[in-house]
Amino acid sequence: MKKHVFNSFIFILLLSGLGMNIVSAGSMVEFESGFEETSLYIRLANDLTGIIKGRECEDCEMKIVKITPNTKLEINGVMVGLIRAKSLSGKPALVIYNLRTKEVRLISH
Fold first, then answer.
1. Is the pTM higher than 0.90?
2. 3-state class (DSSP) for residue 16
């Protein structure tokens, strides 16, 4: 009998905890976005700053996002030096950027 009461108590406690999580969950906020280009337009200076132009969809307006020295470059799943991004001009790539600052976080080819 004690085990049954204990199990019931634990069950009720778990349910109340789940209910609190549901109530406290706020709306989701989007911090990053991205676009995939079949022919990347990229301008990169030797100081590792520059821009990328792209569209999130065919009908979307053109976006210009900023490359900074903090931008990461991934080629075939391996992180490489950002200076190699110059070679991606005209090639397909995925670009992930911060919506607020328009700074590129990742270029993936």
1. no
2. helix
